[in-house]
Amino acid sequence: MMNVETALQKLKEKGYKRTKQRERILEIFVKQDQYIAAKEILKEIQNDFPGVSYDTIYRNLYMLTDVELLESTELGGEKHFRLCCETQGHHHHFICTDCGKTKSIEFCPMNSIEENLNGYNVENHKFEIYGKCPRCI
Question: Taking phi first (over 0 means left), then psi (-120 to 50 degrees means alpha), and beta for anything else, what does residue 46 get?
């Protein structure tokens, strides 16, 4: 799992400044191995930055996604974000619809799906499984 300093170094390499808000956002993701809604990030970060706006949080979350420090998905009609799994390479996730906890799926179903797409050029894909984790059942 990535740590805050590694993430901040990647930001610097991409030309982004280190800010206290970005550092705090990354700290939140490093300590939780799950998808988190932007409103939850806002609640937690407002303890340290009372004047921070929802727009500021969203801008930072999308920027962190663009530089591939975070990945996003949609749960319950709302964008959720989590720290990228940099060491695992290509993989997919089971996502708990109650707590947001994730479990990596080490195989890719595209290998068998591509057999049915003869003549098509697949440029990218996303595969997620949703349900309840053992703790939430």
Answer: alpha
Binding positions for Fe cation are: 90, 125
Class of domain 4-83: mainly alpha
Residue 64 has pLDDT above 90, yes or no: yes
d(CA 56, CA 130) in angstroms, rounded, equals 29
Q: What is the CATH number of domain 92-131?
A: 3.30.1490.190
Is the pLDDT at 69 greater than 70, yes or no?
A: yes
Q: What are the structural domain ranges in the chain?
A: 4-83, 92-131
Binding-site residue numbers for Zn(2+) are: 96, 99, 133, 136
User: Which pTM value belongs to this model?
Assistant: 0.77
